[in-house]
Amino acid sequence: MSAPAEQRSAGAEEAPQDWLGRMLQRLPEPIRPRARDRESHRRRRVEMIVLVVVAIVLAVGTIYDATRAVGIDYRLSADIETWRQITGIPLKEVSIEQDMKHFTKHDVACGNIPEAGKHGEGKPGARTQLCLVMIGPIVKGRRETHTGFFVPPKESDQSVTRYGCFGSPMTRYPCEGAKPAGAPPDTPPKGFEG
Amino acid sequence: MSFKGPRSPSLLEGAAIGRPGGGALSAPAPPRTGVSARDPASRRTPAIAIGIGVVLVAVSLLLLIEASAGKSPLLPPSPSMTKWLEGLGSELTFRIFLIGLLVFTAAYAGLLAYARHISARVAIAVVAAVNVIIFIAPVLISTDVFSYIAYARMAVMHGINPYTHGPAAIQQDPIFNYVGTDWLKATTAYGPIYTLLSYPIAPLGLIASVWGMKVEALAGSAAAMALTWRCAKQRGMDPVVALIAVGANPLWVLYGFGGDHNDLIMIAFMMGAVTLTLAGSDLKAGATLAVGMFVKATAVVMLPFMVIGRRRVSQIAGLAIGAAVCAALGYVLFGVNGADIFSVLTKDSSYVSTDGFPTELAHLIGWPGIYPVDHTILKGLLIAIVAYLLWRTWRGYDWLAASGWALLAVAVTSPWMLAWYTLWGLPLSVITRDRRLLYAILAVQGLFIIHQTSPMFAPVT
User: Fold this and answer.
1) Which of A2, B207, B228, B308 is the most exposed place for a label (fewest CB within 10 A)?
2) Is residue A10 part of a domain?
3) In A, residues 18-37, which contact B (CB 8 Å cutoff)?
């Protein structure tokens, strides 16, 4: 971090030195403290190279991460749109759970399904939820889904709470739960093609 | 639009302003030919610079109005602070905020480019206007200020030690509802001097206590700016450039001051120590830095550079006396945890934020995030950087610049990087002639802003 030749070390050399300063001046030259920074073009060049390399690495990392975040946003948006199209339910709040265990791009989109005698769409997870496993890239604003299941109201998506699985079975999404009494029919949505 | 920049050769190179040198221990730069060297008070500000200043104020006003509507993902749940402005704005959406942030940043860059031609009066007016507007606005982006109030209320109103209990211990207190969910069980991460400074605010009502914290943040921010101005003059540098670089900085204004973060108070103590050093008051300077360390432990980063750079017994004595008094106060009031400011540094470095560079680089190489071993590697890297800077300071490099680099290195290598962490070294960067430090801090801030803008490009569902 060399500085221009006129730079001084915040006045260390200006005021008379106390006994500590005088004592330190008796050290051998290679380790003696200096009052002024000595100009070294070589050192400055090395420091500049290091700084530029660090700047490039940080810039690449930042831009990559920002675009990655945008990509995830688009994917989640496509998940929601796909859920709405397949179920035919214009639900406002569709919950998406990303695969934080295996870090794949498989997302599980869950939303409330209408129930007899209940008005409005309800809070997320307050009613029986229809979940679809989204896989693959976004094509025309939609993602592929070949698997789905139901989750009872106020339950989180776990193997023991899933029931009524439909489509191609996926080992990562086993259905071990039972349909609760009085739950709406667990038939696959009309738009689901498996 | 053609952008005609100023003719000065460099933003920070010292011009002879007023009385160069100022203090007996400053490092005056020789006057340069071809550089705008007029006294800031007698400069005639170019119209374009005034226009840029107006843009800065207008953006701040827009953000104030939109934030006053109350509903926004960028505003933490807060008691209503700006009822009298309700109805003017609609909602501070991510898009509006980020566009505002980008325009603010562009205006800041423009203002910096013209800074050496701007009169002191205009610079002070623009910086004051922007800061007053943000002072009026609701608390932006962070819930930290509610934690500050909660810790104060724990100590004053409930007799609970904030160094051994988190806000979860005062669930019946109205402030509890506003503390961030991640921090409900967290004990205070701040020094006992800061906790003491927040004591007078504790007995006030909910809204008044938030205003009280805002006043403290304003005092910290204004003091930091005033001391930066003074330091720049003491070192024979342009104080207007220094003021604009700090006081109109988008992350300083919108994130640091907008969130009423106590980092600004810590910075004020750091700059107080610097100005005292430059004035030759080593004992007081050491004591002031020690107080800053007991406001927020991060100020400790400056300590070894001050000791090695100055090599004065009186300064070391000041540091020791100040630290001993503050630690004793912390111990008496809060027990051993209140005196131990260093455990906080360890705790902070164990968190991970999405904006941290280590996380971004982990994503770049295909990792889901950073692993525990990476924390150790990052600490090792930081130690190496600090060791190099210390050696350079020992051999004559400006200890203020070295402190600034070290503070920047702490922020960049920390997995828990927040916008206001990039502010720590900013005032130091404008009073040192190694202008690479300022450019490095601005570059890091620029990258932070780029990373923040990703929601702007996300689809609206």
Assistant:
1) B207
2) no
3) 18-21, 24, 33-37
